[in-house]
Specification:
Layout (H helix, E strand, L loop, with lengths): L19 H37 L11 H37 L2 H14 L4 H27 L16 H25 L3 H9 L4 H30 L2 H6 L19 H8 L6 H30 L8
């Protein structure tokens, strides 16, 4: 006798039947995601269409008779320089504040300090600009003089020192204060998610508080700190009014941070020049805005890539 065995049929689990409310929510969420893509694509199409006349126009018809690259390059340099200063100053300070809130401060002090740091993000940028030009700028003249006296051999502090304090250094410090809440908030939440068993194991092995943070907390939160710094960099790249008020613009391409000869930024230049521009000059400004749009998009895409690269962490909570 031969026995035949029929192959077992694999039954796939039935898809759950969504209720009316669930279907409405899913469709609304999907529509919101599609709407964001449409808006982003619309902004890109608008910038490209409006910048095209400036891209194909001869150099003689552009402002100051220069080519488009020669016009935008100093603005890109000033944008990147001011944002880099802000990032260098704000990132270590933000990490230190986040560590103090999560691992050192008493609960009430940590909660109050967290509220105060988050409150910095609610201050309008024009207020930061007024504070930088009226308070921080004059107060920085003494520091600039000291830097020029002791480190004048460096091109960053070669001088001559600006008498008003409206320098690239002050603009970078103002931007650092503005992006501090972003980096601190991201770093604080990442540090709080550090597996407790990792911290307790380090302390049980005889590590000090700082050694535990260095071996357990900082490695776990490295990707979060980097992504927060990239998000803060995106904010610094697109800041307009604070830089326009603080910076004394001369159009020069220089790394001197304490003199009155400063390159402008793309956003500040658009804000200052757009009201009085017409014709092809408007297209040139929009072309510079297109460059800023691409730079900001790349920075935020890099931040998202870093976040997704370490989405899951092997460890116990």
């Amino acid at each position: 006798m031969t026995s035949t065995t029929e192959p077992a049929t694999v039954q796939r689990p039935a898809k759950p039947v969504l209720q009316v409310g669930d279907r409405v929510f899913v469709n609304l969420a999907r529509g919101a995601g599609i709407l964001i893509l449409i808006v982003l694509a619309g902004v890109a199409v608008f910038l490209i269409a409006e910048a095209f006349p400036a891209i194909v126009a001869p150099a003689s018809e552009l402002p100051e008779g220069h080519g488009l690259v020669a016009y935008i390059a100093p603005l890109v340099f000033g944008t990147v320089l001011s944002a880099a200063i802000a990032l260098i100053v704000a990132t270590p300070l933000a990490v230190a504040v986040a560590l103090f809130i999560t691992h050192f401060a008493p609960p009430r002090v940590a909660q109050t300090l967290g509220y105060l740091v988050d409150l910095l993000a609610a201050v309008p940028s024009i207020v930061y600009g007024l504070w930088g030009a009226s308070v921080l700028g004059p107060a920085s003249v003494g520091l600039s003089t000291w830097l020029n006296s002791w480190f004048g051999w460096l091109p960053f502090f070669a001088g001559p020192v600006s008498a008003t304090g409206r320098t690239m250094l002050v603009a970078g410090l103002v931007l650092a204060v503005m992006i501090l809440p972003i980096i601190t908030a991201v770093s604080r939440e990442v540090f709080r998610q550090t597996p407790k068993l990792h911290e307790e194991a380090a302390l049980a092995l005889g590590a000090t508080r700082w050694e535990m943070i260095r071996m357990a907390v900082l490695p776990f939160g490295r990707s979060g700190v980097i992504s927060g710094a990239m998000l803060g960099l995106g904010r610094a790249l697109g800041e307009t009014m604070a830089v326009a008020i603080v910076l004394s613009v001369s159009g020069a391409v220089t790394v001197n941070l304490i003199s009155s000869s400063n390159p402008s930024t793309i956003a500040a230049n658009i804000a200052l020049q757009f009201p009085e521009s017409s014709g092809l000059a408007v297209n040139v400004l929009i072309a510079s805005g297109l460059v800023l749009f691409v730079i900001t998009l790349l920075v935020n895409a890099l931040a998202r890539y870093i976040v997704n690269r370490r989405r899951e962490f092997s460890g116990a909570n």
